[in-house]
Amino acid sequence: MPGERLTVRSPAEIGRFPGAAPPLRVELTIQSQEGKKQEEGGCRRWFRKICPCCCKRQNGTSYDITDKVEYTKPPNAAAVTMPEPVKPKPENGEMKETEEVKLSVCSVDLLSSQSGQNRVEHHTDLYHGDELIIRRGQTFQMEIEFSRPFSADTDKMRLELKTGPLPIVSKGTHVIIPLVEHMDDERWEAKITEQTGNKIRLSVNSPASAVIGLYGLTVTTSSAKDGEPTVHSSSKDIVMLFNPWCEEDTVFLDDEEQRKEYVLNDIGRIYYGTEKQIGARTWNFGQFHEGILDACLFILEKSDMPPSGRGDPVNVVRVISAMINAQDDYGVLVGNWSGNYADGVSPAAWSSSVEILRKYHSSTGTPVKYGQCWVFSGVTTTVLRCLGIPARSVTNFQSAHDTDVSLTTDIYFDENMEPIDLLNSDSVWNFHVWNDCWMARPDLPPGHGGWQAVDSTPQETSQGTFRCGPASVNAIRSGQVYLKHDTPFVFAEVNSDKIYWQRNLDGTFSQVYSEKKAVGHCISTKAVGSDERNDITHLYKHPEESEEERIAVETACRYGSKPDVYSVPASEDVTVEVKIDGEGPRMGTDAKLSIVVKNQSSQPRQTTLHSQVAVMYYTGVLKNAIKKDKIPVELLPNEEKIIEWVLPYQQYQSQLVDQAALMLTLSGRVSETKQVLANQTTFRLRTPDLQITPLGEAVVGKEMSAKITFTNPLSRILKDVVFRVEGLGLQKGHEVVVGDVGGQATVTLTEHFIPTQPGPRKLVASLDCKQLTQVHGVADVVVREQ
Q: Taking Cα atoms as reference points, which of 147, 144, 173, 143 lies closest to residue 160?
């Protein structure tokens, strides 16, 4: 009768390098006869004793032959000589039943199911796939099946974990895990918790300082009677992450709601605009999405940081800050503020980190085009949360960029109080987005742990590389700019004074005005557990003009390049400020602002205000002035005048850049007192939102749809319009090419998709075109189980 054929292939055909050696074929044919009892011969019993995992006795005389034979390649296959099989010593043609079987590992089960005990207890059950993903400083379970029952008295076993290209025990990258009777904390150890027949269950513990990353596992067994030990390599790797739930881990965060937000939430909000016109956009961090963990580990591998340094979150964050930008190390994102994105994707078009990271990983490290600060921050949040470091995106409005380490923002005017653009290298960005991450700082004096500022946007170099942080937010608040890393730069962003200088006739400059509340306003992040904006300015600086705030500024400036910049303030009785009504001017209409000039003295005052409005990149770099005026002002004692200022649509319609931002600069001198008046106000032209309306019932596995509507606010045609749509658990990210959209025209798209995950979800869409940016929308979708 035809038999069953079992083929065993050589080690070279199994694993990562197929075809490295000619195949070894072993064919075992089993003939069966109906109705005839099959006797077991001596050779058959010998084969069963040599490999009991493959030939298990059932019902006494029949055998269950597995249809899969696993072969594990030894560490050095070329140096291993296959031992000759031990010849059976028959007694009357049969093997003795009492002969000892050599101890070896038949299989290792890492219990890595996504919904299993390990993944749930380690808060890694949201990650895609069935790999064993665990957090350091916490025990995990595994099962091992041997060729015979394991005896703790006569048998020995140890586990070994290796990470990196050259694992070394002293560096913590080669870990030898001993078998112990009693578990202690803060060390590698394993304990048998259960034994049934040939199987044992192990509880394995790791220290809270363990190196994070990808580990390979081997199990070595030996016995006093067996001689040479045997080694079994697990076919699955282990991923080790930081552990914010472990008190001994330096990233420990003692608040469950904050851990849910800053580690487990895969959707967030990023703020932009100006302090008086704060906009918000939804961002898909997607740290648990398929392929993202692999991409994050790839970024660590691609960096120059040795694997032994991956146990310290300060090192890891500093490396991530450098690797997210491509400025000098072929990192993830290419920065582009030129307005020309023809060979890539406009920064305003992204609404998710997923596509960026997967594209970078799949191209084996080709930088993705293009990013600006909010994109760098969104991707940084994804990577840090994915690795287990609590993180959030933070937006600072009126964010200073100090280029000369003076810790002041310097504005230079000529003899006529006209700005000298050539000298004005310091700038104030409308907004700038960076990150906070949470960790202890044992490398700093006590009291400087907690939130740390880290910035992946390439602005200035730090120790020769474009990166920034981590800088203690507590140190920034108190002006302790001498504490690492990059604290002076972040301090200047949030709390530098704006110093106005006027050129004298002899070419020197005199300080004519000091603005103490010019930068660092409405520092914002998404609130815990809601989509509301949380103002965290108080974490970065003391209340403006309080004694504590002035002490912090003076403390910081003593370490800057202009320690003697402050002078005695002149008498000031005239004030000037700019007010924006409501949400501010909208794109496609005249921009109207109010200039309020107030005389606080009992004497009349007279001045001439020089006004200049310029188109501005959100980074604070001016493109060009589009309107200049001189406004004479006469004030009676204690009088307040409101001057209506208007910028016609025709003057700005063809001049705008990315964020539709403008800066109005006012300057002048009071005739009677020679007091200098100066004010700079940034504002943006608000763009319309995309309206997203879910249609139908939201049920897992059932098709539904959503309608996306957009109306062009401009009277001119929008060219090459592209929509990007994505929703974690709803719809994979993709583009919809719309083409040209006429002036004042309305576009409606209908998206059809099948939800894959239950619970509250967000469908996010954005519009990408040259003439109009920062157009996006979001819809909440609550998906229920089928």
A: 173
Q: Does 589 reside within a domain?
A: yes
Write out the two tokens for 736: 């919809």
Give a yes or no: residue 591 inside a domain. Answer: yes
Residues 398 and 469 in one domain: yes
C-alpha–C-alpha distance, residues 14 and 233, integer Å: 13
pTM score? 0.72
In a domain, 92, yes or no: no
Q: Which domain holds residue 756?
A: 691-783
Q: Measured in Å, how far apart are the chain's first and last C-alpha atoms?
A: 50
Q: How confident is the model at residue 15 (pLDDT cuts 50, 70, 90)?
A: very low
544 annotated to bind ligand: yes
Does residue 88 surpass a pLDDT of 70? no
43 counts as catalytic: no
Q: What is the dihedral of CA 345, 349, 355, 357, to 10 degrees?
A: 70
Are residue 415 and residue 526 in the same domain, yes or no? yes
Beta strands of 285-390 (E only): which ranges?
333-335, 368-371
Residue (of 665, 666, 647, 664) closest to 609 by Cα position: 666
For residue 110, which of 35, 13, 215 has the smallest C-alpha distance?
A: 215
Query: Residue 394: how many CB atoms within 10 A of its CB?
Result: 27
Segment holding 575, helix H or strand E: strand 574-579
Distance of CA 596 to the CA centre of its chain: 43
Choosing from 209, 241, 273, the residue where a domain stops is 241
Tell me, yes or no, whether 604 and 481 share the same domain: no
Backbone angles phi, psi at 2, to 5 degrees: -65, 145
What pLDDT digit, counting tens, does each position of 626-640 carry?
Answer: 898 899 999 999 999
> CA of 199: how far to CAs of 68, 143, 182, 235, 238, in Å?
19, 7, 20, 18, 21
Reading the block at residue 562, the tokens are 């202009």
Sign of CA dihedral 244, 249, 251, 256: positive
Q: What's the gap between Cα 647 and its chain centre? A: 40
Ligand-binding annotation for 495, yes or no, is yes
C-alpha span between 576 and 681 (Å, rounded): 11
The CATH number covering residue 373 comes to 3.90.260.10
Catalytic residue among 426, 455, 486, 658: 455
Strands of 122-212 (E only): list them. 132-135, 140-146, 155-162, 174-177, 189-196, 199-205
Q: Which of 123, 432, 485, 776 is catalytic?
A: 432
Q: Which helix or strand (DSSP H or E) is residue 427 part of?
A: strand 427-439
**Given the residues 373, 386, 437, 557, the one annotated as active site:** 373
Q: Is there a binding annotation on residue 255?
A: no
Number of domains in the chain: 4
CA distance 171 to 189: 17
Nearest to 438 by CA among 286, 242, 296: 242
296 given a catalytic annotation: no
Peptide bond into 370 cis (omega under 30): yes
Q: Is 455 known to be catalytic?
A: yes
Instruction: Return the C-alpha torsion angle 502, 505, 510, 514, nearest 10.
Output: -20
Residues 459, 492 contacting (CB under 8 angstroms)? no
Say if 167 falls within a structural domain: yes
Write the CB contacts of 487 (distance below 8 Å, at least 6 apart in sequence).
Answer: 471, 472, 475, 476, 480, 481
Residue showing tokens 């170099």:
461
Looking at the fold, whether 659 and 718 belong to one and the same domain comes out as no
Q: What b/e readout covers 266-283, taking b as 16+ CB neighbours within 10 angstroms?
A: bbbbbbbbbbbbbbbbbb
> What 3-state class would DSSP assign to 341?
coil
pLDDT digits (tens, 9 = 90+) for 44-77: 555 555 555 555 444 443 333 333 333 333 344 3
Could you report the per-residue pLDDT of 498-525, keeping only the tens digit for each? 888 899 999 999 888 888 888 999 999 9
Cα separation, 467 vs 314, whole angstroms: 13
DSSP string for 238-291? EEEE--TT-TTSTT----HHHHIIIII--EEEEEEEETTEEEEEEEE--TTSTT
Q: Is 435 annotated as a binding residue?
A: no
